[in-house]
Amino acid sequence: DESNEYLQIQFRINSGVLSNQGQMASCGPSPKVHIAVIDPLRVQCLPSNFGNFGQVNSSICSLDPSSVLMFPSDSTNLSNIPSLIDAVPTGYYIFAYTFITGNFASWPENTKTAFDGLIDPGRDGNPRRIENDRPWLFFCKKGDINSAQYRVGATDRDTISLYVKMINNFYKGTISTSLIGPTHQWNELHWKSNSIDSTLTDSIKLNVMGVKNSGDSTLLFTLPKYTIDIYDLHNRVDASIYPYLKLSLSNEDNIKYTPSQLKKWQIMHAGVPETAINPQKGYYFYKDTVNEGDQITFSVAYENISPYDMDSLMIKYWIQDKNNVLHTIKQKKLRPHPVGDVLKDTVLFSTMGYAGLNSIWVEANPLNPTTGAYYQLEEYHFNNIAQKLFYVNSDKSNPMLDVTFDGVHILDGDIVSAKPEIMIQLKDENKYLALNDSSLFSVYLKSITGDVENRIYFTSEGKENMKFIPAQLPKNSCKIFYNPVFTVDGKYQLRVQGKDKSGNESGANEYIITFEVITKSTITELFNYPNPFSTSTKFVFTLTGSELPTDFRIQIITVTGKLCKTITLSELGNIHIGRNITEYTWDGKDDFGDKLANGVYFYHVITSINGQSIEKRETEADKYFTHGFGKLYIMR
């Protein structure tokens, strides 16, 4: 597509000040030599109707007047190019390039001679040395033959390009200061400019802008040229509103391009105090790595390094967590901070909820959220802020759950008291995150014959069902005492789940135990174990109901009917409702401490509660007893 190829032949000027300029293709698909003349001050092309040099630009061109002068490379108009070059002021840029072909062999001698003044005839970019159909790009600054730059194609099909950086002197510009201040009192503005040649072509003005603590700026006033060199600011600018100033100088000379030169600008103002964090005067940090729940102590010193006293110093602490969320820890005001004073402050904070990599930040003299400004004026603020990284190990260990009925770890299906004391205990190895919240537990109870499971709460209609004993660190163990009263015989199920402060559950599976309640006080027949025995034996039996016997005696009798040993309740030790194996062991001796002879003996149990005999509970083992008497064997 020839039209696309034509459009690819172009040049562009991209100036930071001026809009994009240039030329794309040409006026018609005929061979031409394009010449652009560029003003070095404005970096701007002279229009194609500049002068009358036989250029063929016409109204059908997309840019009219365009940015180039077009000369058909096969016409006698090329002989007018020397007149064009003569008309270009010294110091202006000349850019020339071929469109389709340059037909260099047909160039008039005067045109070649004119280019000899722009580029040395011995260089390959001179038109005298270029083959007839080669693409050609040429750039120079008139009056400086050494500035010539060029590109020549190796064949008639080559694509070539040339990039040139042009530096211009623009006729106007501005210069601004950085922020001046802060201060609580402005005094004087000193400034002076100096004209290079004539002040008549210069236009200069000085803008004084006030800047608030919020950063908002306002043009306060403008000083034109040739006013007084010293200007009073004390009564003109309110430092309480504008603690900062900024100067901006606008300078212009669009005639001689020699703007007035700034000699000085100064602002005199009162100084302000300056504090800085100085770890060399005091610093402490507990640990870089801690366990979750541990407390960290952080302390650092602040020094007034200015010749001005500061008022009471405000300090702010916050944590930036692993998700970059900010958490304010504390903000407090310290005592006044005079010249040379060193202040030390300490903060103590818990790491609970901050598992992972965090940082503690401290800032002296922070922004006042009400005013949006710092609590006090200071020279600088970057040295008021410090950061310290720390890592918190998360608590991943499961706590230990323990459940007892009347102090006993029962087996699934065991009989328990109709009025048991159920103790639920949770222990955690974490020494910092105390188990002090009853919501860490969930307790449920249901009858095996029913489908409804009821959650047991710590209070119900104002009545306390369970009592919570929180943990006291460093021993991180809490307890629940649950004292239900069962009035219906049957089997029940207790379900308990506990978790620690980090959400770790006591186990993958909940604690579930099934137990049986018999509300009536009964006792089963009593067995000795082992039987026969040689050195000692214990006694096994089961109690039901809710009350323990007040009288409990085991009588051991010889086969002739002689009572040889009585074991009392006080000797048996602790017994409880449910299955019992006595702590007491009988060693086979009589009441006088003498060993009984080997052989068979009978034993009988007498029990009562407050004088009322306890009913015997029938079991499959009753067949081993005769009228309530059992047999035991001593074999030594």
Describe the structure.
- The protein is mainly β and 636 residues long.
- It is built from four helices and 45 strands.
- Strands 3, 4, 5, 6, 7 and 8 form a six-stranded antiparallel β-sheet that branches. A five-stranded mixed β-sheet has the order 18-24-23-20-21, with no helix packed on it.
- Strand 3 (32-39) and strand 4 form a beta hairpin.
- It is elongated and about 160 Å long.
- The N and C termini lie far apart (122 Å).
- The mean pLDDT is 90.
Structure at a glance:
The chain is built from four helices and 45 strands. The chain has 636 residues and is mainly beta.
Task: Name the descriptors.
636 residues, mainly beta, six-stranded antiparallel β-sheet, five-stranded mixed β-sheet, 4 helices, 45 strands
